[in-house]
């Protein structure tokens, strides 16, 4: 077997690459196009009521105040224009101001996009540290089947799966269309984790972004629990902290058909795909041959317009 990061030969039974010290786990069986995705959904999900946090309403109130202020300023500007201001010049300046505030997600520098989007207060924030204040779905801790769980433990949300060669995710219960989602995650045991987004549980469609301990990743389109296509993939992300118990920050920006990926605030790649327009966000754990445990904290969502 070869190390997925440096390519060094690893002897059977070794759990750490002797060359780069990256943790080594048996890889999940490759999924071919059209093949069913081995998703586990056995543990009952506890119902929650989707809710907005205080900063969501604060941002909406601020937006309303800005709209009112613009309206008042527009009225006063119109009165001023009647007394000699050049209307065409005023409209040109206004148009330039509007254009300078727009982001073109297909062509704008991706680091500029990240800074502009995440530089504002998030619309939804959840520290993922306490089940009593979180709006994310969790599994019943008393359920008989504990082969896949989403449970709060040690100040974070743990997504754990024991079923070999399978994946499992839990969602927030809220639907987003154009958004940026960011979360801190660490692989504590097993193969890997990541994010699913624009998820529909009714027909099992979603985008899936998974990463293992070496920083190898894939962004895939899943429909009816079958792999449709692999949009992006790579063997290693330079900004990724390899190994176990290493916290990495994952960010997905999805605007119309554009999808941009970031790790630790550094751009990874972007792609255009219009398979799904909206859906829920989920936190993912995917397994090789042993139990996989991934912890998540500090989830944030920015609504894009």
Explain what this protein looks like in three dimensions.
With 305 residues, the chain is α+β, with helices and mostly antiparallel strands. It has two domains: 56-102; 124-303, Exo-inulinase, domain 1 (Jelly Rolls). It contains three helices and 14 strands. The protein has helices spanning 54-81, 87-100, 110-118; strands at residues 124-126, 148-153, 156-161, 167-171, 179-189, 192-200, 205-212, 217-223, 226-234, 248-255, 258-263, 266-272, 280-286, 292-303. The strands form two sheets. Strands 1, 2, 3, 5, 10, 11, 12 and 14 form an eight-stranded antiparallel beta sheet that branches. It has a six-stranded antiparallel beta sheet with strand order 4-13-6-7-8-9, with no helix packed on it. The chain is globular. Mean pLDDT is 81; it is low at 47-54 and 94-100.
| CATH H level, superfamily name of the largest domain | Exo-inulinase, domain 1
The biggest beta sheet, please?
Answer: 8 strands, antiparallel
Total number of strands: 14
Beta-strand percent range: 25-35%
Count of runs of 4 or more consecutive helical residues: 3
Task: Give the SSE order as H and E letters.
Answer: HHHEEEEEEEEEEEEEE
Spans with pLDDT under 50 lasting ≥5 residues?
47-54, 94-100
């Amino acid at each position: 077997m070869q190390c997925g990061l440096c390519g060094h030969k690893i002897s059977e039974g070794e759990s750490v690459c002797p060359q780069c010290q990256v943790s080594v786990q048996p890889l999940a069986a490759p999924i071919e196009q059209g093949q069913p995705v081995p998703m586990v959904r056995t543990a009952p999900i506890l119902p929650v009521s989707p809710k907005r946090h205080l900063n969501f309403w604060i941002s909406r109130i601020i937006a309303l105040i800005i709209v009112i202020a613009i309206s008042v300023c527009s009225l006063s500007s119109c009165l001023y224009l009647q007394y000699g201001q050049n209307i065409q010049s005023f409209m040109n300046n206004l148009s330039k101001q509007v254009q300078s505030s727009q982001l073109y997600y297909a062509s704008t520098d991706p680091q500029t996009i990240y800074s502009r989007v995440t530089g504002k207060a998030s619309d939804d924030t959840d520290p993922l540290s306490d089940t009593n204040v979180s709006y994310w779905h969790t599994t019943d801790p008393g359920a008989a089947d504990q082969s896949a769980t989403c449970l709060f433990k040690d100040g974070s949300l743990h997504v754990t799966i024991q079923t070999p060669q399978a994946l499992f995710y839990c969602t927030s219960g809220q639907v987003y269309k154009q958004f940026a989602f960011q979360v801190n995650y660490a692989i504590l045991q097993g193969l890997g984790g990541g994010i699913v987004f624009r998820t529909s549980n009714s027909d099992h469609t979603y985008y899936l972004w998974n990463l293992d301990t070496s920083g190898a990743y894939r962004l895939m389109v899943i429909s009816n629990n079958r792999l449709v296509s692999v949009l992006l993939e790579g063997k290693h992300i330079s900004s990724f902290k390899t190994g176990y118990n290493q916290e990495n920050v994952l960010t997905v920006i999805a605007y119309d058909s554009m999808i941009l990926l970031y790790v630790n605030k550094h751009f990874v790649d972007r792609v255009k795909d219009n398979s799904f327009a909206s859906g829920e966000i989920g936190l993912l754990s995917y397994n090789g041959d042993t139990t996989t445990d991934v912890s998540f904290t500090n989830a944030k969502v920015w609504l894009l317009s």
